[in-house]
Amino acid sequence: MDPKWKYGLWGVALGAVLCAIVGLKWGGWETRSSAQVLAQERVNAALVKALTPICIAKFQTASNAPAKLDELKKISSAWAREAFVREGKWAEIGNDQNTPVIDACANALYKL
């Protein structure tokens, strides 16, 4: 093989590898798995944003809401507040409760 072709092919291969590295690292290119992770994070954020007000409204329309709010505000641990909201099932949509929604709802209720 002619040395010009050999070095030319090596240059093309090295250029392709460098282009891929630069594009993935700094160019904003995404692999399928990282794009799926990013999409899931955005879906979770949208769920929290949409469902937290519903959780708060469910809490506030409960028959004993003022007493429950006082009880919630006396809880110092964020984990215990989240358990309180989970047990009250105010963050329940259908048969499921979404943990990030529970966290956001507990934080928002604590700040009321």
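[next item in queue]
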Amino acid sequence: MLFRSFFSFRREASDACLLRKFGIASVFATTLFVGGIALGQGGGGGGGNNNNNNNNGNFNNNGFNLGNRVGGVKVDANGVLRALSVQEQDEALEEARRSIVGPQGELKTPANQRLVSLKKIQQIVLESQKTQKPLPEEVSYLGGLTRVSNVFVYPERNDIVIAGPAEPWTVGPNGTIVGIKSGRPIVTLDDLLNAMRTVDSARKTGISVSIDPTEEGTVRLRKLLSQVKITANQSNWQSLETAMRDAFGPQQVKLQGVSANTRMARVILTADYKMKLYGMNLEKAPVDGLPSYLDMMVQSKGRNVQSRWWMTCDYSSIEHSADRLAWKITGRGIKTLTEEEQIAADGSVSQKGKADPIAKKWADTFTSKLEELSVKDPVFGELRNIMDLCVVAAIIQSNGLQELAGCDLSACIGDNAQPTLSQVAFPTSLDPQCSFVRAAQGFVVSASGGVMVDSWQVAATAKTSDELSVSLQGKQWSEESRIWQ
């Protein structure tokens, strides 16, 4: 499972002799690195579906359709992942504002806990697909849920219900649909259906995304760096950056375990991409108190190490009642971890099993800022929502909740799920990135990582709690025709 796309050369303008002493070729030998994106228990990169589907349709034309634009990035006509221009960002916002109707009736009021019926969702989704009639926004945005904190089983209703805090929705940054009160991204029907559809993949083989260099690009880069000379002239560094990018060439994007043209795949990839932009000082984080990893290395006069970091699940507890009818998911949902790596001359990578102090400090800082980031850069909140939903799907499937409820969700859960999901372009390649930063000495650092959602492993940690019981308000629904209560 490889992620080799971002690299950074650090140098001191006034100390060209020191650069020559170290030798850029030998220093730069540490710039290829591993990481990746993996969801599920299992995983591994490579293989996969590289379908660059540019069909910008949405599931039954329901809700706002960003199409090719997710998380402030897009896939261009050549299949390359790129950031949106200012004009494209403005266009996405305007399109979103024109497209949504907004919450109606009781949904205009926030709720500490709103319940959403999975049985009713399946019924409405299948009927909508049959009749080709669009779904209402309250279904597409799951009644305004901003997190999923509970799962309830109602055998008397033959239903399984998810629940959590909910808000009226509006358009937020990058055209993301967010809660009016908190600014957190709304949990979407599309992500729920994707999490349910991929639950078996999460258990069997995992879901992975990798970005790999070509062998030809690696050879060209090594040859270039063996010949290059650095001077104190800034134009020389800029020329080197261009030359390195050209030599390394486009990175291949590969996907396994989830359809490439789904919104879920794009959100996971985009969140990892954004994390690296912030870590490598290629884009300034939109929250205070989050310097780049490179800035931390400069300030701390850090040693030349190869580190990777990745985002993964972070739940403090999964609890259930003795009868397994009530479930509670507690925790911030997402955190960032780090580990040192050792890279051999042939480019192979091995984990050293320990964390560099500076890399760990950046990972911990990034984790502490993820709540703020989920508002300022909503793709991180969308990633957390996906983690919540993957855990919910694993709880349902691994604990036989369909049988316990007498509720058949087979049309929406597992490999044979029927609904057609949003069609979102997935990149076939990504341009390499370079970052030149002043440092006390000349050396190279790089950052790698990804996203790992061990949904089945999280579900397996569930413990019995005597304090949990099914909420009475879910037993009698005032309006049987709607999905929420």
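[queue empty]
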